[in-house]
Amino acid sequence: MLGSRADLVVDLTLVTNVLAPIAALVSFRFVRRRRHDVHRKLQLALLSICVLAVVALETRIRLAGGSGVFLGQCPPAWAKASRVFLGGHITVAVLTYVTWAVLAVRSSRRYATSLPGAFSRAHRRTGWAIFAGLCFNALSAIGTYLLAFVA
Q: Residue 61 falls within a domain, yes or no?
C-alpha cells in the first residue's frame, strides 16, 4: 500500500497511528463547542479503532515469528538503533493506551452525572497527556516503519 516491504496490516496500523492525533484534535474541538456527546463518541470510536489496529499488528507480528523478524530486515548498521526505537515506541504506546482506556472507563461512568463538572480538570489534563502520547506514537511509528521496512 505505501510502497515498502511492509504488508497491508503494518501499513494500515501506521496510517492509524499517524491519523490518531489528528482525529483526537477534531474531537477536542467538539468539547469547545459544548458538544460533549460527539466528543465522547469520537474518542470511544478512535480508541476502539486504535486498539483493533494494535491487536491486528500484534497478531501479524506473532504469526511472522516476532518483532525480530521485521527488525531483521533493516540494514545491520541500524539494528541496535531500531531495537531501541521500537522499545521506546512500545513503552509509550502501552502507557498511552492503558491510560486512555482507564480514562474512557472512568469518564463513561461519570458522563451523565459529573462530566462536565468536578472531574473535568483531571479529565482534561489526562486527555492532553494521552494526546502527547499519541503524537509520540505517531512519530515513533514512522521512525520504526522507516527503519524496519524502508531503510
A: yes
Give the global pTM.
0.90
| Cβ atoms 123, 103 nearer than 8 A | yes
Q: pLDDT digit string (tens) for 113-151?
A: 666 666 788 888 999 999 999 999 999 999 989 888 887
CA distance 15 to 70: 18
Q: Where are the beta strands (DSSP E) in the chain?
A: none
Task: Calculate the alpha carbon distances from 73 to 1, 34, 146 in Å.
Answer: 18, 48, 11
Q: Please indicate, yes or no, if residue 120 is contained in any of the structural domains.
A: yes
List the domain range (segments joined by +) for residue 131. 8-150
Is 2 inside any structural domain? no
CB atoms within 10 A of CB 68: 11
Q: What is the pLDDT of residues 51-100, one digit of tens each?
A: 999 999 999 989 988 888 878 878 888 888 888 888 999 999 999 999 99
Could you tell me if 3 and 117 are in contact, meaning their C-beta atoms sit under 8 angstroms apart? no
Domains contained in the chain, number? 1
